[in-house]
Design a protein that fits this description.
By secondary structure, the protein is mostly helical. Helix content is 62%, strand content 3%. It is built from 19 helices and 4 strands. Helix 13 packs across helix 15 and helix 14 crosses helix 15.
């Protein structure tokens, strides 16, 4: 009987009984992507046109009346497309097919690369390559979006999404040649996409021995390809940074679009590349800031803090923080719709979101630290590796949070989805079990003791429970 190594990234495709036809189809799909870059570029330009129209036109139109509907009002339609369809299902696509959206459809990436073709082509400065940018950009963008009600109004959407696009184009013009420097280092969601793509069952497989042994056929030109997101393809072992564009397919006969176990990258690759900023994004970003951003509007604690501070300010004779004096692009300010925020509201919102992030991140982090310590002498790389097991719960929570906007928008149109509650519970429980299995497999690589492995998983179960409970409370309010 053939034995399939658990450390083999291609185990799924080499195992006895694997469907060779599927593997052959995937390989041909990779080659099709490589050979049809012109068609892909035309599709990208089509997405750019639709993106710009849905982003700009609603911002110059009057706000929709109360009787408007998604199918009769462009502003509501654009809102539904961006926040009800685009963002939640782009996140889901990362888990299913890797960063295919980034490589084939993303308008921001396409525009940045086009600008890079005709820009200055400057060397990428060291400060721009700082690994903390994705975490910082995610936190700041998320908080700013809440302060300006980005999900509800087209103006803030234009500032957040349009501002990001303009910045992407500027970075493309200044640095790199035919590259996506913005996408690699600065995009506010590149860190999230990187994490979720690690769960994808599809990737571009690289065969290092074949790469090294390849010889150029006599009389032919040397093969080349342009990896726009600046991935070192020759040593690529995961799907986190790959944009799945297919340009490298069959390079030196060593790169193939293929299947893999969705657990492999986290269990057997992430441990070799410990990243403190990815741990911060998981613990404090996705489990913390993102959860706080969805919780604050229905939180009794937020109301209590705001009221207590308001009473104290009145006692002190400070009235201006209680008045909605700032413009809409700084704080929500739509008096005609009776929707305004005061400086005090904004301050308490930021305080609440950061407080939730600190509480959740530290609590879950302590559980991960306990698991790391149980496995042996303290090791930060082990801590960062175990933190990766939380990706299913963190990603599922953000998906459910964004998809709650989808449900809300459909409900406003009279479309009620009765199965939503069961589906949410199923997804959260499934994500928790997946995370628990990943924790078990990671702990297995860290210790040879079954007892230590079991206690490590028990500690990780605490972190998983914290993350799941935070997102579950958004829908069921049990604490």
């Amino acid at each position: 009987m053939a034995v399939v190594s658990t450390h083999d990234p291609y185990a799924l495709t080499r195992a006895p009984g694997a469907a060779p036809k599927i593997d052959a189809v995937l390989a041909r799909v990779g080659l099709w992507l490589r050979d049809h870059q012109g068609a892909i570029r035309r599709v990208q330009w089509g997405v750019v046109v639709a993106y710009v129209a849905l982003l700009v036109l609603p911002a110059v139109l009057p706000l929709p009346p109360r009787a408007a509907h998604i199918w009769t009002n462009l502003t509501l339609f654009a809102q539904f497309v961006f926040w009800g369809l685009w963002w939640p299902f782009v996140l889901l696509s990362m888990v299913l097919v890797g960063r295919l959206w980034c490589g084939l459809l993303c308008p921001e990436g396409a525009l940045s690369e086009r600008m890079s073709e005709h820009g200055r082509g400057g060397a990428i400065p060291h400060w721009l390559q700082w690994k903390g940018w994705p975490f910082l950009a995610f936190v700041l963008t998320t908080i700013y979006g809440q302060l300006t009600s980005v999900y509800q109004y087209p103006g803030p959407a234009l500032v957040v999404l349009g501002g990001s696009t303009v910045a992407a184009m500027a970075v493309g013009y200044l640095w790199g040649r035919n590259k996506r420097v913005w996408c690699r280092f600065l995009c506010p969601v590149t860190g999230v996409f990187n994490l979720l793509a690690k769960l994808s069952p599809l990737h571009f497989r690289v065969d290092p021995p074949q790469w090294s042994s390849w010889k150029k056929p006599h009389g032919t030109h040397l093969e080349t390809f342009n990896c726009a997101p600046l991935v070192a393809v020759r040593t690529m072992r995961g799907a986190g940074a790959c944009h799945m564009c297919g340009r490298c397919a069959d390079f030196r006969g060593a790169v193939t679009l293929a299947r893999r176990s969705p657990n492999f990258e986290i269990v057997h690759v992430a441990g070799d590349m410990p990243n403190k900023w990815q741990s911060a994004l998981i613990l404090f970003g996705l489990l913390g800031v993102a959860a706080g951003a969805f919780h604050w509007s229905g939180s009794a604690l937020y109301v209590a803090i705001r009221q207590g501070l308001a009473d104290r300010l009145v006692d002190w004779g400070l009235i201006w923080p209680l008045e909605p004096a700032l413009p809409w692009y700084m704080l929500t300010n739509y008096p005609d719709l009776n929707d305004t925020m005061t400086p005090l509201d904004g301050f308490v919102l930021v305080l609440y979101v950061l407080g939730v992030a600190a509480l959740i991140g530290l609590s879950a982090g302590l559980c991960v630290a306990a698991a790391a310590r149980v496995c042996g002498k303290w090791s930060w790389p082990r801590f960062h590796h175990l933190a990766q097991a939380l990706i299913p719960v963190a990603g599922c929570g953000v998906f459910l949070g964004l998809s709650s906007l989808t449900v809300t928008m459909l409900k406003a149109e009279g479309i009620v989805l009765p199965f939503v509650g069961v589906l949410r519970a199923t997804l959260l429980i499934g994500a928790g079990l997946w995370a628990l299995y990943l924790a078990w497999r990671i702990a297995q690589t860290k210790t040879g003791s079954s007892a230590r492995q079991a206690f490590a998983v028990l500690a990780m179960a605490g972190a998983i429970a914290i993350g799941g409970a935070v997102w579950a409370s958004l829908f069921w309010r049990f604490f």
